[in-house]
Amino acid sequence: GLSSMGYAEASATANVETFWIWVALFTLGIVGIAILFITSYQTQKMQQLHQSMFNKQLEMEKNQNLLLTNMSENIHDIAKQALEKSHHVIDKTSKSFRSKEKILSNVESRLLDVTNNLIDFLRLKSKKIEIVNEEFNINNVLNELSGTICSQFLGSQVELIFDIDKNVPRRLVGDSLHLGQTLKSLLEHIMDQGDIDEVKLEISKFDTFEEQVELQFQFSDAGRGLNAEELEDLFVPYYDEESSTYVGLGLYVAHELVNMMEGKLSVQSIEGKGSTFTLSLPFDVVDKSNHRMYRLPEKVLIEKKVFIVDTNYNSALAVKKMFAYFRHEVTVLSQEEFMKNIPNLTSFDIVVLHESFFTVRLVEYLSKIKMGKELKVVALNSLLKSDKESFVHEVIDAHLFKPLNQERVFEMIVNMYNIKVPAYMEEDKQDETKHVQVHRKDITETKGITQHSFSVFSGKNILIVEDNIINQKVLLSLLQHSGMSISIANNGQEAVDMVKENKVRFDLVLMDINMPIMDGYTATQMIRLDSQFDSMPIVSFTALVLESEIQKMFNSGINAFLAKPLNIGKLYTALSIYLADTEVAEPKKEEAEAKEVITYEGINIENGIKHANNSEALYLEVLKEFSTAYGTSDEIFTKLIQEHRYEQVKMLCVDMRGLTGTIGAEDMHTLINEVLNKILYKKYDLLVNYNEKYKLEIQTLNRSIRKYVAAA
Fold first, then answer.
1. Residue 99 domain-assigned?
2. Beta-carbon neighbour count of residue 139 at 10 Å?
């Protein structure tokens, strides 16, 4: 009995174990199936993701192909649009002559920007752009930025605000030229979006562990914003067929420059709410111990009571920050509150009001206060909207044009109270230059001017002071065959040294203002300190446009003012004012047409010049950069075909198709189209036949470019 019981228990135990084994096997089976399902699902997801990325890559390639393929056609379209817009402006009689001139200049600037972007694109391709670290004034960069952008978008209703922290250093060490170019590209992109009421640039300083500081430039708008796809492709340049315009070429160059300056450029955007571009860059500080960069020269100017009302409240708060820097007690009121009930202003020392608020009643009220106490009244307006004449009345002591920076507010306060500025601020007013005519009016344009026209100034010595290498080359190309002797200084300090060395007695100095190491204001003052140079004319050549900035130039000792971009008719007029021993007559028509037309094998020079804003100097620069970047591309072409890397062959040819069309290299353009046609139909075995053809064509093109450049 016991043995049978033991057997039954053993059997039951075995059954239980068998049961759990089956449960375990079943569970493992379920888990295995689940794992297979999940793995299969993930594989499918990965394949979908890979396909999506592949499609994205193809789309990006297609867009970039279109960018370069249509390079020449697009530049031609812009030139045509510019011409049409020019005629449209001329036909409209409602605008003043000066407004017409400004708009025509802005139209020319658009084509010039495209050409300059192309040059930078080529220079980046050939790794020719160098980053320099030189001392500069941040305010000069901001003034040039606001002047350029506000001229370009004149009449826009956008409120442009510069909101600058009080601890941002005045003088920095870095690359001011490429900083300005990057800020301009970002702001142009934002302004081009449309449907924006306000754009704010906030500038902040952050200390780093090193001896440097980091400046953060943050552009924010409340526009339409970007979706995820637009955000991803933002810094990838492409050609938009629908709008017939480039998208992102300027942003691409800006992004590359930021990387070269060891900075960071990022963008955040919410569709329907707006975008924020954040640029962070490292700089050295010139004077780390100088915590207050703008010291008012007299204590009586500190702790004034200031009242501010603007049409835009955020703008008023930014202006408040500028005045609060000087320990002023600042009150800001909204436009609505002010219009509802004008408060008692008798307790204030400075009243800052938007120009549109000056009614007859308000002017009478302010005049009455002025009879009993010293009250300074400042009229506020925007550079973007300043195409109309400013409101002028004896009650107004000063005009301020937004966007502002700390230095401009400092200068306004000092000028308004007629206080002399100490030398360390480098703003001493000079007596107007003796012995040389000061030409305060806008320089007029002499019509029919060509490169040959400048030979009338043969034998004269000119000093060009300019930090932008492209501007240097454009001026050199224009003037070097005139018989004049041309010298170049890269900044104000070099100019002062060259003038004072007296190795060359300069007949005229063409002076840029915004430059590193020493700006044009200071350089002019330093030259004028020596009376032996009283009779030497100095003509400024700058993008700064404010009346206060132009007045500052004349105060420093400048004789005349030329606005960028270069207008050769106006340059001719300026030179004729100061260099002609006798009055220079307008060039005869036949003189303008005297240049012999020479043909060069493989390249249509006339078409190439048309694509470069009709500027031979700019065209020469494009040709030189093309030769550097693609002059030996036949070696790459052959190597890629030998290695069967046909996708890379296609990309090289896409680059070449756009560029050869732009420079007028028609034979090379035709050959490249043949190669692309073979790639399109996957006739890769025929590509080897083009190795020798490509080599011969690029060599012919190189020879023609060398001959043309040498003869220019």
1. no
2. 22
Q: 9 lies in which domain range?
A: 2-56
H/E element, 22:
helix 2-69
Q: Are residues 309 and 276 in the same domain?
A: no
- CA distances (Å), origin 700, targets 601, 635, 695, 703, 704: 7, 15, 9, 5, 6
User: Phi-psi category of 459—alpha, beta or left, where left has phi over 0 and alpha has psi -120 to 50?
Assistant: left
Residue 47, pLDDT above cutoff 80: no
Question: Which H or E element spans position 333?
Answer: strand 329-333
Q: How many CB atoms lie within 10 A of CB 512?
A: 27
Taking only the tens place, the pLDDT of each residue in 158-203 is 999 999 998 898 889 999 999 999 999 999 989 988 788 899 999 9
Residue 612's identity, in one-letter code, is: A
Q: Which residues contact 203 (CB under 8 A, 6 or more apart)?
A: 162, 163, 164, 165, 168, 215, 216, 217, 218
**pLDDT value at 82 more than 70:** no
Helix ranges (H only) for 155-227 are 176-192
Which residue among 14, 41, 56 closes a domain?
A: 56
For strands 274-285 and 305-309, give the pairing. unpaired
To the question of pTM greater than 0.70 for the whole model, the response is: no
Q: What are phi and psi of 560, to 5 degrees?
A: -155, 165
Structure-block tokens of residue 200: 């704010």
Report the C-alpha gap between 317 and 329 in whole angstroms: 13
Q: What is residue 327's DSSP assignment? A: T
- Start-to-end CA distance of the chain, whole Å, equals 123
Q: What does the pLDDT read at residue 242?
A: 57
Are both 258 and 156 inside the same structural domain? yes
Question: For residue 509, what are the CA distances in angstroms to 7, 92, 542?
Answer: 118, 37, 13
As given in the structure block, the two tokens for residue 270 are: 């919410």
- Our count of domains for the chain comes to 5
- 563 exposed, middle or buried (CB, 10 Å; 0-12, 13-18, 19+)? buried
Q: Which residues, in sequence order, are bridge partners of residue 353?
A: 309, 379
| DSSP codes of every residue in 23-72 | HHHHHHHHHHHHHHHHHHHHHHHHHHHHHHHHHHHHHHHHHHHHHHHTHH
Tokens coding 566: 């270069």
Q: Are 381 and 401 contacting, i.e. CB atoms less than 8 angstroms apart? A: yes
Task: Give the C-alpha separation, 349 to 4, whole Å.
Answer: 116
- DSSP letter at 710? H
DSSP letter at 169?
Answer: -
Q: CA–CA separation, 120 vs 254, rounded Å?
A: 10
Token pair, residue 501, equals 């060395």
C-alpha span between 308 and 402 (Å, rounded): 14
- Beta strands of 345-397 (E only): which ranges? 350-354, 376-382
Do 512 and 564 lie in one domain? The reply is yes
pLDDT in tens, 472-484: 887 887 888 889 9
